[in-house]
Amino acid sequence: MTARMDTEPIRPARACPVCAGTIATLLQRMVFLLPDDHPLADRYGIVRCSACGFVYADTASTQADYDRYYAELSKYSDTATGTGAGHQDWDRARLKDTAAFVAESLGDRASRVVDIGCANGGLLAEFLDLGFQRLVGVDPSAACAASATAIPGVSGYIGSIFDLPDEVHDVDCVVLSHVLEHVRDVPEALRILRRVLRPGGIAYVEVPDATRYAQFLIAPFQDFNVEHINHFSALSLANALRRAGFAVERTRGKAISASATATYPAVGVIARAVDDGSHALERDAPLGDAIIEYIDRSREALGVVQAHLDRALADVSEIVIWGTGQTTLTVLSNVRLSPRVVALTDSNTRYHGRRLGGIPIVPPEQLGEFDVPIVVGSLISHLAIEHRIRQLGLPNRTIRLSPT
After folding, report:
1. Which terminus of the chain has a smaller tally of CB atoms within 10 A, N or C?
2. What residue ranges define each of the domains in the chain, with the CATH number in brackets?
3. Of 136, 184, 134, the residue nearest 158 (C-alpha)
């Protein structure tokens, strides 16, 4: 369950990822329902740094835990459901726009571009279409690295920002697109970024825009999950980059596609490697206020989900839940389900054969064995899941998490 907190300042276990401050205010506690043997912690507090105003998860998970998680359980290796491959029209449009924006600052098509956290290489494919030929992708998932390598003109490597291959050095441009919100040690990640860039090289960093979470709310607490542990605004992102020796040259807010029907707030910056990072930071007071608004609206949305499920499941004794992704698990960790859950399913094959709270996670094709309703456990990808259910010819009654 979640709990809104109003407490005196505390000393979090994790120092502020932006300014290294050690005093914070606890805004929210989160507890997660996770598959058995999951490498990440199942709870943390959302805190606001008293020094610079940054908001982040005070998680006990280490960077090694996160590296293991993305190597073993990455959803991005699934080209059918994961983003970053560009296999869906809406995903490719996002990647094409990003490549064009970065290319404006690079100019020279002979520039060497490295995408760290490249997923299946969709962004690199768009750079290739723009005439760039020296392209490298790095990802902790072996399947993702192989997919990137399969793109003609792209070299893919297994690794991460903390474990880069020797070939990544003297780079003209490094891309960290929707990576930094996942990183526990932000200062070290940006120092590494600074080191692999040639003098005057640029970084493109894009992250979710936490100041607009409340305006783009689809599922309650969708942004407070085990993956997203840093909640940036444009200002806090600039603070982190300046401290690492970058000068921010261009900033833009945007709304990106998270699925065929859902959009998500993001902020992207072009930053140039310039010096040793001796800059004063600007306090980000508005970020905390925006996060508190998001918490309040999430709690209201959670009440709507709970009331809907109470009605929809009133005459049901057993169910199957479709979904073991971040949003699904965050929502399901915070609602009461009266029916017994006999199985879960997900398109991510890496979860098949595992258990969640003792409940088996089975392939979608196996759902025909269960003559019970299917609760569609996603408020973002529910249409795609319902389409897949029809494709499989399953006769089960389907129930959404929301009445609309």
Report:
1. C
2. 3-58 (2.20.25), 63-275 (3.40.50.150), 294-400 (3.40.50.720)
3. 136
